[in-house]
Amino acid sequence: MIRNLLVLCMLLFSVVLFAQQPDSTTLIQVGQVVPNFPLTTLDGQTMNIRDLNSRVVLINFFATWCPACNMEMPELEKQIWLKHKREGLWVIAIGREHTGEDLVAYRTEKTVTFPMAPDSKRDIFKRFAKQNIPRNILIDRKGVIAYQSVGYSPEIFQELNAAVEKCLQNR
Protein backbone atom coordinates (compact mmCIF):
# COMPACT_ATOMS: atom_id res chain seq x y z
CA MET A 1 0.00 0.00 0.00
CA ILE A 2 2.74 2.47 0.96
CA ARG A 3 4.72 1.47 -2.12
CA ASN A 4 1.71 2.18 -4.35
CA LEU A 5 1.21 5.55 -2.68
CA LEU A 6 4.88 6.43 -3.26
CA VAL A 7 4.63 5.44 -6.93
CA LEU A 8 1.51 7.58 -7.34
CA CYS A 9 3.20 10.56 -5.64
CA MET A 10 6.25 10.22 -7.89
CA LEU A 11 4.02 10.05 -10.96
CA LEU A 12 2.09 13.16 -9.92
CA PHE A 13 5.32 15.03 -9.12
CA SER A 14 6.73 14.22 -12.56
CA VAL A 15 3.49 15.37 -14.21
CA VAL A 16 3.72 18.71 -12.41
CA LEU A 17 7.40 19.09 -13.33
CA PHE A 18 6.95 18.69 -17.08
CA ALA A 19 3.64 20.56 -17.06
CA GLN A 20 5.10 24.00 -16.48
CA GLN A 21 5.74 24.72 -20.18
CA PRO A 22 4.95 23.06 -23.47
CA ASP A 23 7.73 20.51 -23.88
CA SER A 24 9.93 19.43 -26.77
CA THR A 25 7.14 17.13 -27.97
CA THR A 26 4.87 20.10 -28.72
CA LEU A 27 4.51 20.71 -32.47
CA ILE A 28 2.55 24.00 -32.41
CA GLN A 29 3.17 27.40 -30.88
CA VAL A 30 1.07 30.13 -29.32
CA GLY A 31 0.33 32.69 -32.03
CA GLN A 32 -0.04 30.13 -34.83
CA VAL A 33 -3.31 29.46 -36.61
CA VAL A 34 -4.76 26.20 -35.32
CA PRO A 35 -4.19 23.26 -37.69
CA ASN A 36 -7.46 22.32 -39.35
CA PHE A 37 -8.82 18.83 -38.75
CA PRO A 38 -12.12 17.02 -38.97
CA LEU A 39 -13.77 15.48 -35.94
CA THR A 40 -16.97 13.72 -35.05
CA THR A 41 -18.37 14.21 -31.57
CA LEU A 42 -20.05 11.46 -29.58
CA ASP A 43 -23.44 12.88 -30.53
CA GLY A 44 -22.59 12.43 -34.22
CA GLN A 45 -21.82 16.07 -35.09
CA THR A 46 -19.13 16.17 -37.80
CA MET A 47 -17.11 19.35 -38.38
CA ASN A 48 -13.72 20.87 -39.04
CA ILE A 49 -12.19 22.79 -36.16
CA ARG A 50 -12.06 25.97 -38.25
CA ASP A 51 -15.87 25.79 -38.59
CA LEU A 52 -15.85 27.19 -35.06
CA ASN A 53 -14.22 30.52 -35.97
CA SER A 54 -15.78 33.37 -34.01
CA ARG A 55 -15.97 31.12 -30.93
CA VAL A 56 -13.35 30.58 -28.27
CA VAL A 57 -12.44 26.88 -28.39
CA LEU A 58 -10.65 24.79 -25.79
CA ILE A 59 -9.26 21.49 -27.07
CA ASN A 60 -8.37 19.03 -24.32
CA PHE A 61 -6.42 15.89 -25.22
CA PHE A 62 -6.77 13.18 -22.60
CA ALA A 63 -6.90 9.44 -21.99
CA THR A 64 -9.20 7.56 -19.65
CA TRP A 65 -6.27 5.77 -17.97
CA CYS A 66 -4.30 9.00 -17.28
CA PRO A 67 -4.29 10.01 -13.55
CA ALA A 68 -3.62 13.69 -14.28
CA CYS A 69 -6.37 13.73 -16.92
CA ASN A 70 -8.79 12.26 -14.42
CA MET A 71 -7.94 14.98 -11.90
CA GLU A 72 -8.36 17.70 -14.53
CA MET A 73 -11.63 16.49 -16.10
CA PRO A 74 -14.03 17.47 -13.26
CA GLU A 75 -12.31 20.87 -13.01
CA LEU A 76 -12.84 21.45 -16.74
CA GLU A 77 -16.51 20.66 -16.26
CA LYS A 78 -17.11 22.86 -13.21
CA GLN A 79 -14.71 25.75 -13.55
CA ILE A 80 -14.57 26.24 -17.31
CA TRP A 81 -17.37 24.54 -19.26
CA LEU A 82 -20.36 25.17 -16.98
CA LYS A 83 -19.12 28.64 -16.09
CA HIS A 84 -18.40 29.89 -19.63
CA LYS A 85 -20.40 27.90 -22.20
CA ARG A 86 -23.06 30.62 -22.45
CA GLU A 87 -20.34 33.17 -23.26
CA GLY A 88 -19.41 31.49 -26.53
CA LEU A 89 -16.87 28.97 -25.24
CA TRP A 90 -16.80 25.55 -26.89
CA VAL A 91 -14.87 22.77 -25.13
CA ILE A 92 -14.00 19.55 -26.93
CA ALA A 93 -12.24 16.73 -25.10
CA ILE A 94 -10.46 14.42 -27.53
CA GLY A 95 -9.78 10.90 -26.29
CA ARG A 96 -6.34 9.95 -27.55
CA GLU A 97 -6.31 6.30 -28.64
CA HIS A 98 -9.94 5.84 -27.62
CA THR A 99 -13.04 4.77 -29.49
CA GLY A 100 -16.44 6.37 -29.20
CA GLU A 101 -17.57 3.44 -27.03
CA ASP A 102 -14.71 4.06 -24.60
CA LEU A 103 -15.65 7.72 -24.30
CA VAL A 104 -19.39 7.14 -23.82
CA ALA A 105 -18.63 4.95 -20.80
CA TYR A 106 -16.06 7.42 -19.45
CA ARG A 107 -18.35 10.42 -19.94
CA THR A 108 -21.13 8.67 -18.03
CA GLU A 109 -18.79 7.63 -15.22
CA LYS A 110 -17.24 11.10 -14.84
CA THR A 111 -20.54 12.95 -15.44
CA VAL A 112 -19.06 15.50 -17.82
CA THR A 113 -21.34 17.26 -20.27
CA PHE A 114 -19.02 18.98 -22.74
CA PRO A 115 -18.53 17.47 -26.21
CA MET A 116 -16.08 14.60 -26.64
CA ALA A 117 -14.58 13.00 -29.72
CA PRO A 118 -12.48 9.87 -30.20
CA ASP A 119 -9.02 9.92 -31.77
CA SER A 120 -8.31 6.19 -31.88
CA LYS A 121 -5.29 6.44 -34.19
CA ARG A 122 -3.93 9.80 -32.92
CA ASP A 123 -4.81 11.41 -36.26
CA ILE A 124 -5.78 14.66 -34.52
CA PHE A 125 -3.24 14.51 -31.69
CA LYS A 126 -0.28 14.16 -34.07
CA ARG A 127 -1.05 17.61 -35.51
CA PHE A 128 -0.32 19.11 -32.09
CA ALA A 129 2.23 16.94 -30.32
CA LYS A 130 4.23 13.75 -30.26
CA GLN A 131 3.30 12.68 -26.71
CA ASN A 132 2.24 13.83 -23.20
CA ILE A 133 -1.24 14.42 -21.87
CA PRO A 134 -3.33 16.05 -20.57
CA ARG A 135 -2.78 18.78 -23.12
CA ASN A 136 -4.92 21.90 -23.55
CA ILE A 137 -4.96 24.20 -26.57
CA LEU A 138 -6.99 27.40 -26.32
CA ILE A 139 -8.01 28.99 -29.62
CA ASP A 140 -9.23 32.56 -29.86
CA ARG A 141 -12.11 33.83 -32.01
CA LYS A 142 -9.76 34.32 -34.98
CA GLY A 143 -8.59 30.70 -34.95
CA VAL A 144 -5.21 31.53 -33.40
CA ILE A 145 -3.68 29.51 -30.57
CA ALA A 146 -3.84 31.81 -27.54
CA TYR A 147 -2.59 29.45 -24.83
CA GLN A 148 -1.47 25.88 -24.38
CA SER A 149 -0.46 23.70 -21.47
CA VAL A 150 0.82 20.20 -20.88
CA GLY A 151 0.08 18.26 -17.71
CA TYR A 152 -2.09 19.18 -14.78
CA SER A 153 -1.60 20.99 -11.49
CA PRO A 154 -3.87 23.46 -9.71
CA GLU A 155 -1.52 26.29 -10.75
CA ILE A 156 -1.54 25.30 -14.42
CA PHE A 157 -5.30 24.98 -14.29
CA GLN A 158 -5.60 28.50 -12.83
CA GLU A 159 -3.49 29.81 -15.72
CA LEU A 160 -5.74 28.01 -18.20
CA ASN A 161 -8.87 29.40 -16.58
CA ALA A 162 -7.43 32.95 -16.67
CA ALA A 163 -6.50 32.52 -20.34
CA VAL A 164 -10.06 31.35 -21.15
CA GLU A 165 -11.54 34.38 -19.39
CA LYS A 166 -9.17 36.74 -21.21
CA CYS A 167 -10.05 35.19 -24.60
CA LEU A 168 -13.76 35.48 -23.89
CA GLN A 169 -13.38 39.17 -23.01
CA ASN A 170 -11.66 39.93 -26.33
CA ARG A 171 -14.34 40.45 -28.93
Written account of the structure:
The chain is 36% helix and 21% strand. It is α/β, with parallel strands linked by helices and 171 residues long. It has one domain: Glutaredoxin, CATH 3.40.30.10. A five-stranded mixed beta sheet has the order 5-4-3-6-7. Strand 1 and strand 2 form a beta hairpin. The N and C termini lie far apart (52 Å). The N terminus is likely disordered.
Task: Map the helices and strands.
Elements (H helix, E strand, L loop, with lengths): L1 H17 L19 E3 L5 E3 L7 E7 L4 H18 L4 E8 L3 H11 L5 E4 L15 E5 L5 E6 L3 H16 L2
Parallel strand pairs: 3-4, 4-5
Antiparallel strand pairs: 1-2, 3-6, 6-7
Estimate percent helicity: 25-40%
Q: Give the strand order of the largest sheet, numbering strands 1, 2, ... along the chain.
A: 5-4-3-6-7
What order do the helices and strands follow?
A: HEEEHEHEEEH
> What portion of residues belong to β-strands?
15-25%
Helix-and-strand structural type: alpha/beta
Q: What is the CATH superfamily? A: Glutaredoxin
